[in-house]
Amino acid sequence: MLKWVIDNKVNSLKNVYMLIQCTKKLLDELKVTTQEQSNENPLFSWHANIIKLGRKKTIVMVNDQTKYVIVLYGVKAKDLKNLSGLLQQSIREIFKAEGIKEEIIEQFIQKSGQASITKTKDRKSVARMNRACEDFYFMTDLIDEKSIVQVGVSMKISSLLAGAGKGTYINPNEELYKSLEEMAGQPVFHSEAAQLKVTLLLENHAVWRRITVPTNYNFKQLHKNLQIAFNWQNSHLYEFKVTSKNQHLVKIVSFKDAYHEETEIPMKMDSEVELSHCLEKSILYTYDFGDNWQHEIEVEKVFQD
């Protein structure tokens, strides 16, 4: 049995701020013993439930203050034993994808401390959490089967209007930005962005798009933006090739099986490489290995602030 016993006095002495308030269903899965616990700062408090999509267990968390939603998909027993660490990992990945500065993310995690587990607080919070669970079932097309932390799903749900009581509504993502700015006393967003000209290589046709993205985007995030820009359906494999002076530096792939290919070019997963590392390089994006749609990516400008 996982030994998570909550004691209010002990926790106050240890300055534990992050609170995960779980439904009975999730508490049963965690196999924990809890006592009454409260947190005066709702920014570091979450309500959490566990649901199933097919055979996959999914944890949905909602922040008490901002109503921001974090979704963990395909969790297993070993993950449940480290729910606090998994929440911290999720915060890092999702907040970074939102464009929030890394130093502010780390400040938030530092202030949060080690998570404590307790029961749900009130019906209002549970109702909001249940609504987030319902929203998740409408976002299954955004699920990343290769990751527990569902960055795209979390960001999408958190961009939807959420009830704030007395007939008012908020956007959880915007509430998050405001709350983090108040916490840190400074603007929260990563200040550097790249303007890219992306040309689809076709004979006798000039097809291109110009997009601007944060330079801290990884290539998985860049791929999603390119899919939207060219109205692709995100239904095929893809890769990026990064070159300098006609020499291949790295192949950035979207699937681990690519590592079994015989090649002298180093390979990395798309989630592991940031655009900021390739600003002065040539980038070729290939989508759908059958039709072989190739896109040449040119970094035109880099903006600060």
Automatic annotation (TrEMBL):
Residues 19-175 form the DUF6933 domain. InterPro entries: DUF6933, MM3350-like_sf, Plasmid_pRiA4b_Orf3-like. Pfam families: DUF6933, PRiA4_ORF3. Residues 193-304 form the Plasmid pRiA4b Orf3-like domain. This is Plasmid pRiA4b ORF-3 family protein.
